[in-house]
Design goal:
By secondary structure, this protein is mainly alpha-helical. Helix content is 59%, strand content 0%. The longest helix has 49 residues.
Length: 121
């Protein structure tokens, strides 16, 4: 839960007991729950208002897409993953051209001068 282990959760409970006391802790927990519920409701209504204000063109708009990491993942990497999965599903076709075979090169014997091309230099 939130990357916390049992030791951290236990420490938080002990700190909460020391700060609020055993008699006020249930009230503080219920108030925190109500506050979290209200914040979630406000965020959902703001998102719905934004979607209705933008119109039907943006019906699939998600505010999380404004995060640059999510934007890149959605618009660039998803296309690459789709292309990769489509290429993987297709069977590889055999090559239609013959493999490249270099032409044999005449080697110079010891002391022989290489040919000189005046147009190339």
């Amino acid at each position: 839960m939130f990357g916390l282990g049992w030791m951290e959760i236990g420490a938080l409970i002990v700190i909460a007991l020391l700060v609020f006391g055993p008699d006020k802790l249930p009230q503080a927990a219920s108030q925190a729950g109500r506050t979290l519920r209200n914040l979630r409701r406000m965020a959902n209504s703001a998102r719905d208002d934004l979607r209705s204000g933008l119109g039907p063109e943006f019906s699939n708009f998600d505010p999380a897409d404004l995060n640059p990491r999510n934007f890149v993942r959605k618009h660039l990497l998803d296309d690459l993953e789709d292309d990769w999965s489509n290429n993987k599903s297709r069977e590889l076709e055999p090559a239609t051209t013959a493999p490249y075979v270099p032409e044999p090169v005449d080697e110079l014997s010891y002391g022989e001068l290489p040919p000189y091309d005046s147009e190339a230099t």
